Sequence to fold (299 residues):
Amino acid sequence: MVKPIVDGTVSTKNCIFQTQNFLQMRHLILTLILLQAIADVAVGQQRQGNFPLENRTLYLTIKGGIQRGYSGPQINNIKPSIISDDFDENTYKTTEMKNVGGVVGLSFYYGFITWLSIEVDFLLANNKAGYKYNDIKDLQYELTLDYRYANIVLGPKIYPFGFGDRIGGEWPNGIFVRPGIYGSLNAFNPGQKNLTYSHVPESLYGPSGYIEEELRKLVKGQDNWGWMAAIGFEWMPIKSNRNRDSSFGLIFEASYFHGFEDVVKIKPQAYGFRSDISNYIRPLQFTVGLAIALSQKSS
Fold:
């Protein structure tokens, strides 16, 4: 009954690769433009703000944003993993979907010295993949993965312009780079129900529900871990009195996550699904955070 899923082959034209690369460059350029705009605003606020956050103060940051797959879907190879390469590529078409997911969570931040702080994030990230399929036999189906990951991210934040007077109010002091490591738990996925499948016409290919249950038995979401790298900007929009801390700060961050684990395990079966193709999560992420001071600046 699952055979309609494997009636096809994977073929990606050069023009599609070029289009994807263009889209990725477009998103990267837009991110850089946004960061530059933030810096421009910061320059205009020099007399009203501090750059970056106060050191020797513990902050709680509430952050949210989006993730997008670096070269397509966030989970990068689900289509070639499912569709067999035994059939003529001219007999069917596919359309990628589910490229963007949300991220939200909390982090704790502490600045040690003028050029170094540390941050630990506790984030919920929605990592997705999927495609639509239709062929000359009138089969149309959609397959989606909609995994929710609980992430812990740990790493230092280094301020390359912060070796001087951190509280002097110069906007470059708010620029940081952040290397780190992370672990991801594939949570909120009982019975692999974050995989969905449906097709038409059911009168010809049988009920979709049966195939969906078969797929959930054979395609299993896995945990993940890897490294990340980020660049960002932070400042306190309201300049603090030298004798007390500002009440809040803003943090803008663009990052890349490089997962090492194959997050989709395909069990042995006779349908042509390929367990030798790895599915990684390697997205670009952009977040905005509101940092709230939890302690007074230590002397």
User: Anything to note?
Assistant: Residues 127 and 167 are 39 Å apart (CA to CA).
